[in-house]
Please model this.
Amino acid sequence: MKKNRRHALAWLMVALIALPLSAQQQFTLEDLNFGGKNYRNMIAKNRSLTWWGDQLLRLSADTCWKVNPVNGKEKVLFTRDAINKGTGLADDEQVTSLSYASFPYPDKPVAVLYNHNERMLVNFKTRKVEWRQERSVGAVAEEWNKNSRAMAFVMDDNLCITDAAGNTRQVTSDGSRDLVYGQSVHRNEFGIEGGLFWNPQGDRLAFYRMDQSMVTDYPLITVPELDDSLQVIATPAPEKYPMAGQTSHLVTVGVLGVATGDTVYLKAGDPTDRYFSNISWNPAGDIVYMMEGNRDQNVVDLVAYDAVTGNRMATLYHEAHPKYVEPQHPITFLPWDKEKFLLWSEKDGYNHLYLYDTSGRLVKQLTHGNWVVMDLLGFDTDRQAIIISANADSPIQQNLYRVDVATGQMTRIDEGGRGWHSGRLSTSGAWLIDNYQEPDVPRNIAIVDTRNNRQYRYFTAPDPWQGYTVPEYRCGTIKAADDSTDLYYRLVLPTDFDPAKKYPTVVYVYGGPHAHNVDARWHYASRSWETYMAQRGYVLFILDNRGSENRGRDFEQATFRHLGQVEMQDQMRGVDFLRTLSYVDTTRLGVHGWSFGGFMTISLMTNYPDVFKVGVAGGPVIDWKWYEVMYGERYMDTPQTNPEGYAQTSLLNKAADLKGRLQIIIGLNDPTVVPQHAYSFLKACIAAGTQPDFYVYPGQGHNMMGHQSVHLHERITRYFDDYLK
Amino acid sequence: MKKNRRHALAWLMVALIALPLSAQQQFTLEDLNFGGKNYRNMIAKNRSLTWWGDQLLRLSADTCWKVNPVNGKEKVLFTRDAINKGTGLADDEQVTSLSYASFPYPDKPVAVLYNHNERMLVNFKTRKVEWRQERSVGAVAEEWNKNSRAMAFVMDDNLCITDAAGNTRQVTSDGSRDLVYGQSVHRNEFGIEGGLFWNPQGDRLAFYRMDQSMVTDYPLITVPELDDSLQVIATPAPEKYPMAGQTSHLVTVGVLGVATGDTVYLKAGDPTDRYFSNISWNPAGDIVYMMEGNRDQNVVDLVAYDAVTGNRMATLYHEAHPKYVEPQHPITFLPWDKEKFLLWSEKDGYNHLYLYDTSGRLVKQLTHGNWVVMDLLGFDTDRQAIIISANADSPIQQNLYRVDVATGQMTRIDEGGRGWHSGRLSTSGAWLIDNYQEPDVPRNIAIVDTRNNRQYRYFTAPDPWQGYTVPEYRCGTIKAADDSTDLYYRLVLPTDFDPAKKYPTVVYVYGGPHAHNVDARWHYASRSWETYMAQRGYVLFILDNRGSENRGRDFEQATFRHLGQVEMQDQMRGVDFLRTLSYVDTTRLGVHGWSFGGFMTISLMTNYPDVFKVGVAGGPVIDWKWYEVMYGERYMDTPQTNPEGYAQTSLLNKAADLKGRLQIIIGLNDPTVVPQHAYSFLKACIAAGTQPDFYVYPGQGHNMMGHQSVHLHERITRYFDDYLK
Model:
C-alpha cells in the first residue's frame, strides 16, 4: 500500500510538471458535460479489469495482461494481433477488440471474443478458435449460456434460439409490437432488466411474453433527420403507454426446452393486474422461481414452478405492507447448499438479506441494522461467506463487506473504509477488485484479499482537473421537516468564493424514489454542471429529501400517495438552512431538476412563488394520472382510489400560481414522461394567464444524449444567467 | 351630408362629456388584442345593414328597421317578438335572432330566418311561416338555393340534398377522410372557398370530389382538454398534407341533377397534377365553367362543360406566364346579356376585368391602368354598369367605382375618396352601402346613390379610443432595393415621443404574397399590438416589400423561385431608412412576424445577425420543401426543379448564423405550417450550437384563437422587454 501511495505521488508530480505556467484554466461545458468534446479527458482515468477464475486480468482493445494482485505487476497474456495471426482468421473475421473479452471457464485458457459477426471461444494458449457462433444482426435482446453455448435472442419480434452447433430455430411466430417476446416487461420496474433467463445448464430458457394489444398508444412523432433525403414528412412513432388506473398489459412466462423445442407456460393463473418479476432458477435447472405481485403492489409472493410441466409447486414466501412492497432482486442459491437461498426484503425497515430453505422456512436473517444492502457481489464458497456492498458505515457511503453465513459476522474489506466502493469478485470469492472514489479521491483501484482483509493498491487515477480552478464542495446534514431525520446536502461554493459577498443560489433537486444525489464519491458526487455554475458565480445546493433511496423503507415511503409534498417540506428546510448562510442571496434563489426533479421544480416554483425566482424543469411529471401504471400506482395508488392525492399533487391546479421565470424542457420523443405532461401544463398556464417558457429537443427521449446534453446545459445556464444573475 | 357631419360632432361632444376628469388611460392587451376581455368595446362601432331589393334595412338581434338612405331615418319593419307571436311558433321553434336574416326576394315581403333547427321563409307582413326546412346538425358544408329552395350539404363525409319538400337524399356513399365530397379542394388556394355550386335555378349542383388517399399524413396530435375527464391520453390527429414535389390529390367535379338524382362527372381527363378551380354556371344553368391549371401553375384554361352529359364543350380562354398564373375569380355573366361574361386577369401586369363572349372572343378590356381591381360588387342592370372596388386612386386605398360597360368610363362613387371602402350593392345596383375607414376615421357608413354619385352619411362611429393615450401613426414611402419601386411603410411612435431620445425599434413583417400590412384604413391599418408596444416605449416599423399584394403582377412575382430574398433586400432598405431617424436606436432593432412573416423574421435574424438583436417568429416556414404543394410550388416550383432556390431559402442552412435572441412560437396543431418546420430548425440549431427559444400553444392551429391571442401577445411583448428594452 505504501509503495502504491508513492506511485500516486509520482503521478501527481508528473501532472504538476506538465502544467502550463499560465493561470489556472476555466472549464467549458465541452470539458464538463458528458458528450462534450473534451469530456473524456476530464474524467478520472480507469482500468478495465476482469477475472479469469482467480487470475486478475487487465484488458485493452489490443492487449490482455495478467496482473499480480499484490504488486500490480503486469505481464502480457495475449494480444489481439497474436490471436488474429495465430488463428489464421480471414481479414473480415478478425477479432475486433479485446475490451469486451470474457473468461467464463476458470480452468480453461479460453476467452470469449468477438469479430463483426461472430461470438468465438478462442484458446489463447494454442491460439485456436475452438468454437464459433454467428451473432444475429438486428437482435433486440441476446443471452448466451456458457454451459450449453446456446444463444437466445429476439429478432423481428419473435424469440429465436441458436444452439451450440449453430442451428437457429424461431421459437415463436406471433410476435409483434402488440405481443412482445423475450424482452423487459412492466417497463423495467421491479428490477427487471431483460426477458431471457437461462437455467444454469443452458438447456432451458425462461422468457417473458407480454400481450400489450389492449394498452393505449401514446402518439409520439418522429421528425426526419436533417440529413435524411429520403424521408420528407414526419411519421408517427406510437408508444404503448398504460397510464395510471388504465388497462395494463398481460404478462406470462414461458419455458423453452432447448432439446425438445417445446414451450410450456407457467400456470400462474389469470395475469390481469398482476406483476411477475425476479425470475430465477434452482441450481438443478428444473424449477423456476418468480415474485408475483398484485396490481396494488402491497402483496408479493415468491412462487416455485415445475419448469417441465409449468405447474405451480409452492408459495415459498409472502410479504405485504399497507403502503407497498417492491421486490427488486431475484433469489440466489448458496453455491454450497442447493437447498438454501438468499432473499432480499425491506420487511424490517431496511433492505437486508435473509436465508431461506426450499421448503420456504426462514433459516435466519443474515444482515441487520439501520442501513441497507446495496448489492450481492458473490460468494466465497470454500469459506461459506458472502460478499456484499452496503452503507453500514455511513448513509452516504457504499462499502464492501464479507459476511460469514454461519456466524453472521460482518467485516468491512475495502480500502480506506470511506467513499463509494464498487466490487467485482473473483470466481472463488478469494479476491475482489475494489474500484472506489472518496470526496477527495477521483478514483482508486485496490485488489482485496477477501480472506485476510488485505488491500493492495493497484491504480491511483491522477486528478483529471489538475490545472483548473475547482470550487469547494461541502457536505453536511440538516434535519428534515419531521425535525428528527438527518438529510444529507451538498453545497458547492463559487469558484472565487468571498464570504462577504452575496451569491445567487440554485437548488438542484431530484427528490424521487430509487435515487439519491449526495454521496461520498469524488466531490460528494457533484454533477459537473454544478462546477460550471460555481465558476459563473453561483452557489449550488443539493439535498436528498425523504423519499430518496438508501435510507430505509420508512424514509422512502414517507411520500406515499402524495408525491412531492413531504419532499417539498424537506427542500424548504434546505432553504431555511440557506437563509442561515450569509453569502447566499435568498432574493435570488433558483431551482432546477429533471424528471421527478422537474416535477419538484415546478412544485416548488408554484407552491413557493415568493421563494424561487427562476426554475428550469426538465421532462417534468405534471399530473401523476398521466404517468405509467407500474411506478405511478406504486407511489400514488390509482386516480380512482386516491383522488385527493392526485388532485393535491397535480401541477395543473398550480398553473395560476406561477410567478417567477420557469423554463420547461422536454425531449419530443420522451417515452417515459410523455410530452402530454408539459403540453397540458402550458395549456393550464395559457388559460390562467401565466407565462412559463418552454423548449423541446426533437428526436430526444427522456434525457438528452451525446452532445445535445452540452447544448441543454448551455441552455439551462443561460436561463439562470438571464433571470437570476 | 352637412347635416350628418353635425350629427358626427354631436356624437363627439357626448363622448367628450362622458370622459373622466382623470389622466388619459393606458391600454392593456385585454383592451387591444382580439379575444381580450375589453376588446369589443375598443373597436369602432358598426351597423349591420342589408338590402331587400333596393330597400335599405338595418338588423339587430331583435329588430329589423327600414332605413331612409337619404336622411338616415329608421322605421321598424318588424321585430323578432312580433314574428314569433304572429307565426304562433312553439317555444322551441321560435326565431332566435334577426342578425342573420336575409331577403332574397326583392318583390316579396319574405325573410329567411332561423330557429335552432330550421331555415324558414317568413312573410313579415302577414307574419306567417310560408315554408320551413330542417337544417342538418353536424353538416360540415351547407349551400341553399333561393330559387329551388333545395339545400346541399355534407354530412359524415357524404354529399346530401334536401329538396324544397323536405326530402333528404344521400347522394354519395363512399365519402371518407380519403375521399372528400363537397368541400374546398386544393387547400383553398386559387380562390376556392367551398365545394358546392348551385346553378342559378337550383336544379343542378356542381360539387368537388377529392381523392386524397394517396396523400401522406402529417402526424399532428391532440392533447386532451383540461376539463375532459373521459379522454386521458393524447390521440393522433393526422392531417393529409401533400408537400412540395410529393404526390398530390386527385380532384374531379360532379354535377347532380336534383330532379333525376343522377350525377355526371365532368369529362376533364386525368386529374393527376392538375388544378380545377373557379367553378361557375351560365345563366341558363346547363353549362359549367371552370379554370384548369397545370401543376406547374404557369398555364390555365377556361373550359366549358355540358352539365347534362359532362362533355367538354370548348376552351374559351387560355393564359400562360413563364412564372405563374393564378386565377382567383370565377367568370361572371352580364345580367343583361347572357352571351357575355367578365373575366379577371393579370395578363397586362395588373388585375383587371375583361369582357368576353361565350364563343371565347374578347369583346374588350374593361378596366385599365397601373392599379388593380379588388372586388366586383355587382351590376346596375338597367344602366349597364358594373360596380367595383379598386386601388386606382392610391396603392394603399380601396375605393368604389362605377364603370360604364359601353364606354369604359369609370367614376369614383364613394364618400371622400380616401381611405379603405367596402361596398354592398342593392339589387338594382342603384344604391350602395359604403362602409369605410380613413387614417383618422375609425368607421363611417355612407349610403351612395350610384347613378348620380351622391353620398348620404348614415353612421359615424365615435372614436373607440377616446380617453386613451394614443400614439402617432405615420405613413410614407421609400424606394425598394431596385431603387425605383415605391414601398409603403407605417411608423408608430412611442406614446410619449421625444425626438431627442433613442428608442428600441421593432420591425413587424409579413412580406408574403396575397397580403399587405400598410393601407389607408384607421391608423394606416396598424395592428393593435403596435399601439401596445408604442405605449411601452418602442418605435414600430412596418414595410410592405415587393412580393406583397395589390401592386401588380411584377411587384408580386419579383420573389419567384427564391422567396424571402428580394423581400429581405427591401426590408433592409427599411432599416436604412430607420438609420436616418435620429430617435431610432439601431443598436436595439427587433423583428417580429407570423407565418410567412415568421419565415422573414428568421431569415432576417440569420442573414443579418448584426442588425437584428431580438426576433419573435410565429408559425415560421423553415424549408419550403415542407410546405404544401399548391402555394409552395406556385412560388418556388418543386424541390426537384429548383434545388438552388430551395437551398438558398432554407433556414436549416442558416441555423449556425443565429446570433441574437430568437423565440419561435407555433400552434401544436398547426395544419398549415406543420410543426416539423420549427422542430427541424431546433434540431439544426442544436447541431450547430445556437440557442433559439421556443414556445408552443397546444390545441392551437396556425394562429392563436380567442383569449389565447392575448396570452401570445403578452408573451411576444415580454420577449422584447426582456432582451431589447
